[in-house]
């Protein structure tokens, strides 16, 4: 599969959603859906890395698929509000690279 930009992915999701009369859900409905998806991710992480193993009768979901669901709803949310996720990412990285530049212990990359 070829590399795609966030803009490409946002367009792909928009093309998919645009084929339906209902279109995007309201922002409040998308926030509720995102919350549901984060809960499903939490459950999978708890099963894989926590103290709560799955019941033998439970379906095999994966952290990867749950993260994919969260990415999809995030893109839907952004698209519905006209937010360019590439621009949003750049703003967030600028914030982290300035505000949090010295917040964490950096790995020493100097050679001795």
Tell me the span between the first and last alpha carbons: 41 Å
Q: Give the low-confidence spans.
A: none
Outline the biggest β-sheet: none
Overall 3D shape? extended
What does it look like?
The chain is mainly α and 112 residues long. The chain has 4 helices and no strands. It has helices at 6-18, 27-49, 63-80, 85-99.
Question: What attributes characterize this protein structure?
Answer:
4 helices; single chain; 0% strand; mainly alpha; 112 residues
Walk me through the topology:
Blueprint: H1 6-18, H2 27-49, H3 63-80, H4 85-99
Helix pairs in contact: 1-3, 2-3
Structure summary:
With 112 residues, the protein is an all-alpha fold. The protein is built from 4 helices and no strands.
């Amino acid at each position: 599969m070829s590399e795609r930009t966030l803009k490409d992915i946002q367009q792909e999701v928009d093309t998919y959603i645009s084929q339906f009369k209902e279109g995007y859900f309201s922002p409040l409905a998308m926030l509720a859906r995102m919350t549901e998806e984060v809960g499903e991710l939490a459950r999978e992480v708890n099963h894989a890395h926590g103290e709560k193993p799955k019941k033998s009768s439970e379906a095999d979901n994966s952290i990867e698929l749950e993260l994919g669901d969260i990415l999809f709803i995030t893109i839907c949310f952004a698209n519905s509000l006209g937010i360019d996720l590439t621009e949003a990412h750049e703003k967030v990285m600028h914030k982290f690279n300035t505000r949090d530049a010295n917040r964490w212990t950096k790995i020493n990359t100097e050679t001795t």
